[in-house]
Every structure is written in C-alpha cells, then in structure tokens.
C-alpha cells in the first residue's frame, strides 16, 4: 500500500471526480472544504453515527450509508462515476453483523470480506480498499489531494520555541518515533529534556489530560514548559491514521501547562489551521513543524 | 557505576557490617528482613518522612536522619563501622535548603555537593555515593546482598501463561525495553498481542489505573486477558530503581482485567513474594519471570 515515501501529490483533472468517506472528526471537513476551494467539490459518503453532524460536509452532494452497508459502497462509487476516493476520519463503531441484510453486492464480496475479517478490522479495511481499486477507483491519501493540510517545516503561528524547548522537541520526537516503530502510539510529552508521558491506545486527548493531572498532583509540579510532539510512524500507511493536531489540541496542551507543540512536517495534518494559529497566538503557545532525525527545523 | 552486567553477588563475612538507607516502600523492608534471615542483621538509616512507619525496619538497630542531614551520613556510617551500604526505596522529598544547618561535615562536602547538585538530583546522589566510597564503605546493590529477592525465570505461583499470553509477554517486553532504552519508564501493558499503554513518569500504579479505566470506558472493552511487563532498562544502574512488583501490583493488575504479570528474571525484584504468590493464585493471575530478547522462558 502507499507508504509515506510513495504518496506523491496527485493533480486532479477536470474530469476526475473525487469522493470522501467521511468518518468522525475534523479531517474529512478540512479535506472536503480544501477540495471545494480548489474547484473539486467532492461527493461525500456520510457514515451513520460517525460523520459529525452540523458541519459543511452535509452541504455537499453525497449519500448516507450505514456501516453495515459497506458491501454497497463499490456500487455507489461506480454509479456516481467516482475516479478517486479518500478515506478520512475515524470509524469507531464496528458493524453489527445481524443488521447486515443479504444482498447481491454482499454475496459478491463475501468470500474476500470474510478472509479480510479473519485478519481483524485492519484486514477488512484493506480488503475493501483492494475491492474498490479492482473497480478502477484509486484510493488516495488525503495528503495527496490536499497537501496544504500537511504541517510545514518551521514556525506555525506567532510564537517560536525558546532555545531550551529544543531539547524537549528532540526528546519528544525520539520517544514518539520509538513507540511509532512499535505501532503503539504517535505522541509523546517531554519536559525538562526528557519524555515523561507516552501515548498508547488512549489517544492524545487522554495523554494530555494525564499530563495536566501530573502537573497538579505533584509529580511534575514546579517543572515549567514542556512540549507535545506528534509524528508519523516509520512506514506509516499514509491513507489512514496520519497524525493530526487541531484547535482542541492547542487547548489541551495549554491546559497541560505545555509551552508548545511539535508536529512532523510533511507527515502530519494541521486541521483548521486558522483557528490553531489564533488560539496558539492568544495562549502564548508555539506550534512548529519539525523534521529530520534530530528534530531540527 | 555498577551496571547490570557487573553487580555480582557479594558474600558478606562475619566481620562485615551492613547498613540500609531505607526510603519508602517495601523494598527496604524486604532487604533488611532477608539480611537478618541470613545472619547479617542490618543497621537501618531511617529517613524522616520517607521510611514507612509500622514496619520491621523500626525493630533493627538504627538511627533516624532528616533528608537535610545528608552531610552527616558519612560520619554516622563511619561511627557505626559500616563496611557495606545499600540504598533502598524511594526518596520523594527534596531537601529544604533553609532547614540545613551549617556543620563541619557539611562544609567538608559542600564543594562536591554543590557540583553534584548542579547536575540535578541524580548528580547529588552520585556525589554522595562517591563520598561514601571514598571513606572505604562499599555502596552495593540490594540484588548483590539479597539475590533471593530477584525474580527467577519461569512461573512464580500456581498459574502459568496460556499459549496466547506469550504474544502479549513478547509485545510488552519489547515495548518496555524500548522505553527503558530512552530512560522513560520500565513497564508496558500489552493486550491482544499489542502494547497498548506505556509507563512514563506517572509510575506503574497509575499505568494500571489507566488500563482499568480503558477497560470500562470502551477503548479496550471486550478484549480479554493481557499482561503487565516490567523490565530493567539496558545499562540499568543496579543500585537504584530496579523494577519491582509486589502484592499491590498483583491487585492492580487484576483490577485492570489483566491475565498476568511478566517481570525480567534476574533484573527485577519480587517483593513479599509469599503474598504475591498467595494473591496471584487466589485471583487466577500468572506471574512469570521472563528473559532473553524474545521473552521466552
């Protein structure tokens, strides 16, 4: 599948028609709006119970699908003459198997779907992707069609890291890479030149909540500054799970008493970048795109 | 300083006299009782506000010292004709500098103490250790004088890992080693063959509390079994911070819904091993000493 090194930018032509399978969170909203701004208003596959309500996603051409109707996704995309598909956002709910109705599309993909299922959720997703691609539709990474969402190198916003923050950025990046290599998490918090908290399955929100608690209950009370670092894992599958930060990350980092955020340039998304910059500037946090083995900009 | 590979067993002779600086927790209690059982009843340096009250430590010959009196430790040890010293247990409080009274011992060590202090808490500790050793007293690791406290290879207690638990033990060990190499933590929790939570500065208790919460709030609800793995970091300073488990670890692992605990054989302490076995057997948890690059027993 497309690796970090592979996923080159794709220039959509006037005849291309792109669809976005919109899971939860701000990524699908950012992807759709960016595509529309570039003159490629997307077709949105809204997933029941996953796509966030009340966003611009509901204003585009599209169709709502229950997660149990995954077998009919290929038919839908063919009917709409889709040429490129982006999978964006989280899908947290698993199909309720007894809610799946027998159908021709289902029976057609069943053998492969079952084989994929035996390999876990990830296996099912990969099976779906290969089914879609067998029908001549390219499954592409969000970064390939809306590269503007990727973190750029260097300062993002008004504030820059202080000299002393670079030790934290390096320690955080080193730790985030190490746990990424083991496919455990994408984020680390470093304070005083040392990684002190690592992201597991709990996610970045709970990681930052933990750091906030550690600030108040004494373990790291009195220690100033510190950073959150997020980076992609080595060999990251760029079509899913690319690290993201957004305005809520800035708020949570601030609540955790951190001085700033480092994100891997070119391999992480900064969502709602206008709001990110506005909040970071107002709260006095830096946001910086880092790269290279040593976390230099 | 003594590395994991170095710290060989020391056979105390009848003329040797050993002292234990007793910080918090069960380790100093286990060390003192083991030494007494072997016929080397220790002299205990009780640290105000750190040594746990109501333990057997208070029944040995000894003297209470405030953390601010660290400068007089060398004099005390010389007066008691101590030949070997073990530092055991946690020291969480830092000296209150205005509570330190000027004294001859203090002025004698001040230049080196200040230099050590400039390198942080760890630097101060190392300075103290070298001061003590300059006075002909050997600072030794607990494992060197009471090797019986070390985890042994294989099953500890009645229950053994099931076949499927070995993938968790390997994943947990791999993750704990990776974060140990970066000097971040010593423990990891793995479920379903994947590390899902990593220990940072918060410690093992809060790590297990987090896993318990993740079981109940849905992130890993429905996933059975799983293990806690603790191991020493590569190049571990064996005279401090060797990983430990005890009865409370068994209780917390059980509360987190885990099937068992893996500890690095020969480089971790199992404290109050009788209670550990009794609780693990009763709760149905396995405790196993693991070793080798692949976590095989």
UniProtKB/TrEMBL annotation, chains A, B:
InterPro entries: LpxI, LpxI_C, LpxI_C_sf, LpxI_N. It holds the Pfam family LpxI_N. Residues 153-288 form the LpxI C-terminal domain. Residues 17-149 form the LpxI N-terminal domain. PANTHER family: BLL4848 PROTEIN (PTHR39962), LPXI FAMILY PROTEIN (PTHR39962:SF1). This is Phosphatidate cytidylyltransferase.
